[in-house]
Amino acid sequence: MDYKKVISCRCCGSNNLVKYLDLGEVPLANNFNSSKSYPIEVLLCMDCSLSMLSIVVNPLILYSSYPYHSSVSETFKNHCGEMAKTIKDILGTPNPLVCDIAANDGCLLEQFRKEGFYTLGVEPAENLANECEKKNLGVIHGFWDSESSKRIAACDVITATNVFAHVDDIKTFVNLAKDKLRCFHKGIMVIEVPYLDNLLNYVQFDTIYHEHLSYFLFKPLDVLFKSLGIPIFRVEKIPIHGGSLRIYACPYERPIEDSVEHLLMEEENSNLWNLNTYKDFSENIEFIREDLPFLLYSLNEEGKKVMGYGASAKGISLLNYCEIDNEVIHSIVDETPDKQGKRTPGSDIPIVPFDAFEKEKPDFILLLAWNFKDELIKKTKHLGAKYIVPIPQVEIL
Ligand code: JHZ
Known about the structure:
Blueprint: E1 3-5, E2 17-27, E3 37-45, E4 51-53, E5 55-57, H1 59-63, H2 74-91, E6 97-101, H3 107-114, E7 118-123, H4 126-134, E8 139-141, H5 146-150, E9 157-161, H6 170-178, E10 188-194, H7 196-201, E11 214-215, H8 218-227, E12 232-238, E13 244-249, H9 258-269, H10 275-301, E14 306-309, H11 313-321, E15 332-333, E16 351-352, H12 355-360, E17 364-367, H13 373-380, E18 386-389, E19 395-396
Parallel strand pairs: 6-7, 6-9, 7-8, 9-10, 14-15, 14-17, 15-16, 17-18
Antiparallel strand pairs: 1-5, 2-3, 3-4, 4-11, 10-13, 12-13, 18-19
The protein binds ligand JHZ.
């Protein structure tokens, strides 16, 4: 079976789920071997306010091989450096052991190593586990489950960045981590997830795709972690990936900081636990779905060449949601070797290396990885092209 249907909330177990968004059927964003489409519908849990996709695609289809390499972005590397330093300060233990779940190419673990940590990664994609191994970071090839967790020692910190939203059984995921946290040093779990508040306010609907099963506010996370006996003691808003949350949780005695209560109050006051907020969001999406194809077809008629930058999962989703294809986008530059030479699923646009910019001299560059806007503009300024930023509204720079 390719996928299963969601019948209850994965945070609180409620069956009171209401559909608020239907984006039709689109292909899997990171699967370059197939253009098979699957539905994208988003449900809201009326009890804990978790947003989630109505289906769960078999993770073996999504992650056995994974083209995304975190280390391609300098911005992300810097972010990982800051994260490693912050966690080192909180722990205050000499030579702590960190385990990073879904370690990708080891981008975060390399930063922990610089801070004196012993490192270990767990990574389901074989191509990425091999990268961690080449860097001598220590890696177990597999999903985070009872098998892989059995193979690791007790840790001072377990990290999971940009993976929690991808997991269906998040209770088992957290429980397995909780059991591995060292009691003596008051081990902690640190998780980063894209923040739904930013998704709604900045109309980041392109970040809704099959890999992202959950779209988190802080409330459902707080409910979940409390119910599992590993309360969140600190929460921070961080700018990465268009705005994310970083939560710190610990099963041992640590004072709960004010940030926890403050964010819950802020969410309630901003009406984020209210279904009407989500109805407004679906209406805002339609502006982008009209404006972006309109602009690209107009430029095409004027004979302008448009190239994309960043064959990100969100970019590939955006093109499919807006029904944009190779008629109006010449090609997409991406510096990830595993993506080059492939064609985008659905929109069928060639993915090319950076030097294609120099050869093709585009009039316009569509920033499909708008979350790294500053970095992408810095690297292409010399080309003299204009930029199209699609999110939160279509804009020419
Ligand atoms: P980027 C990823 O989604 C993966 P994506 C994942 N699904 C997730 O949860 C989210 O992040 C949060 C390229 N690039 O990071 C690299 C350059 O070529 O926005 C990437 O292919 N040169 C786990 O895929 C893409 O752009 C550069 O200088 O939507 C960026 O993808 C830079 C900065 C990027 O995430």
